[in-house]
Amino acid sequence: METIPLVMRFIRADMRDRKATELSVPQFRTLAFLDRNPGASLVELSEHL
């Protein structure tokens, strides 16, 4: 469990460095959730975020 905050910091720092993607962290999390949960409802997505 201690590695999760470290990984999230790494992902955030990497996303800030890659301005070409123009995705915010919440947008990235949304896309990742939808990729892992095809057909998820808006309620499921909002509960995840």
Task: Chart the SSEs and their pairings.
Elements: H1 3-17, H2 25-36, H3 42-48
InterPro entries: WH-like_DNA-bd_sf
Protein name: MarR family transcriptional regulator
Organism: Pseudanabaena catenata USMAC16
Task: Please tally the β strands and state the result.
Answer: 0
Count of helix runs: 3
Distance between the termini: 19 Å
Q: Output mean pLDDT.
A: 81
Structural class: mainly alpha
SSE order in H/E notation?
HHH
* Number of separate domains: 1
- Low-confidence segments, ≥5 residues, pLDDT <50? none
- Strand share of the residues? under 5%
State the major sheet. Answer: none
Q: Summarize the amount of helix as a percent range.
A: 55-70%
Shape by Cα distribution: globular
| Rg on CA atoms, Å | 12 Å
